[in-house]
Structures are given as structure tokens and as C-alpha cells.
Amino acid sequence: MRAEGIDQWDDFYPSDAIIERDRLAGTLHVTRRGTHILGCVTVDTMHDPLWSGMAWTFPSERSAAVHRLMVDPAAQRRGLAKQLMADAERRVVELGFVAIHLDCFLANPAALALYERCGYRRVGTAQMRKGPFVCFEKALVTAVS
Q1: pLDDT confidence of 16, banded at 50, 70, 90?
Q2: What DSSP state is assigned to residue 96?
Q3: Looking at domain 2-144, what is its CATH homologous superfamily?
Q4: What distance in Å separates the CA atoms of residue 91 and residue 78, rounded to the nearest whole number?
């Protein structure tokens, strides 16, 4: 991201400790080719306190959260992020949630476009340490049936 001028992640976030916490909790989902990690995403129930006040359709108790979607730069532009999100959505449905909440750095146009292509709707903006983040929500199939 830094090579593309996106100053979103740094030595503070996401830290090795955060990734290890996700792994130990069983919320880190990884895609590999052999032993090489191509990408990962965290799916949990942790809603950032800065998300309060967003125009959510579904409350946090009925929604899972997606964090830290990452794809190895050498594996980008092959649909892997979209696949990781589709896998996350399936997991969320299996866990009995009706929606997904997430945030995305406003200065990351590729990620913003990805979430919109995947059917996520903007519900507001939260001011985080690195700047404004757009909050997104997607109702899942079971939420409307």
C-alpha cells in the first residue's frame, strides 16, 4: 500500500500481536499456495467503538465484522480479495449472523471499489488514527429471507 501512496498500515497496526491474537482465536482465515500465504481476512464480532453512531440497518449483535483483509502484492488483481470476502460471507451465514460490518480507509480507492462491487453499502464515516474510514454494511441472503 505504501508503494501506491496509501499510508494506512504501519508498525503499530496491524501488529504481529494482533495477527497472532486473530490466529489463536480462530478468526484469521488464510488462503495459501503451498506454504506461501497469498491473503487473509479476520472475521469476528469485534465492532470498533468508533463505529457507534453509524446508520447500520442491523445492530452489532446480529452482525459479524470483517477486519484486516490482506492480499500479497504479488497475488493482487486476480480476484483473491473478492474470494476472501465471499468466503467470509459464507462463514458469517454459517455462524448465524445476518450482516457484515467493516470499515475501509477513505484514501484506499481499490479497497473502497472492492467493497462496493461486492454489494456493501456505505453507512457513515469514522475518524480513526490514520484519518477517515468509511463504514460499510452488507445484509446477507438469510437476512432478507
Answers
A1: confident
A2: T
A3: Gcn5-related N-acetyltransferase (GNAT) (3.40.630.30)
A4: 22
Report the run of H or E that residue 32 belongs to, with start and end.
strand 28-33
From 68, 60, 64, select the one nearest 18 (Cα to Cα).
Answer: 68
CB 74 within 8 A of CB 49: no
Average pLDDT over residues 103-110: 89
36-61: average pLDDT = 92
Kind of pairing between the strands at 131-139 and 36-44? unpaired
Q: How far is CA 36 from CA 33, 57, 91, 130, in A?
A: 5, 38, 23, 29
* 92, 102 Cβ separation under 8 angstroms: no
Instruction: Return the domain boundaries, the chain.
Output: 2-144
Q: How many CB atoms lie within 10 A of CB 53?
A: 10
